[in-house]
Amino acid sequence: MVWEQSVRATHLFLSDKEVEQIKKYVPQAVNEQNPQAVGFYEHLGLETYRRTDFDEEGNPYPLLYMKLQNI
């Protein structure tokens, strides 16, 4: 899966278990600590509509929830 390969290559701070757990949240959220991913999604026309200080598992990884503009 392209998404998983990309995450494993760019999110070295995540364990295998964490990667498996966050799969169920794709593509709703992007980790704020990954500016390349944020920029990529912004380039595609997505915008942030919500930010959290922690991921869905309660880990200190801020998430940006993004959606296409005007949707």
Task: State the helicity in percent bands.
Answer: 25-40%
Task: Give the percentage of residues in beta strands.
Answer: 15-25%
State the end-to-end distance.
27 Å
Low-confidence stretches: none
What's the total count of β strands?
Answer: 3
Summary of the model, kept short:
With 71 residues, the protein is an alpha+beta fold. It has three helices and three strands, in the order H-H-E-H-E-E.
Keywords:
71 residues, alpha+beta, three-stranded antiparallel sheet, 3 helices, 3 strands
Architecture blueprint of SSEs:
Blueprint: H1 2-10, H2 16-22, E1 29-31, H3 35-43, E2 46-52, E3 63-68
Antiparallel strand pairs: 1-3, 2-3
Describe the structure.
- The protein is α+β, with helices and mostly antiparallel strands and 71 residues long.
- The protein contains 3 helices and 3 strands.
- It has a 3-stranded antiparallel sheet, covered by helices on one side.
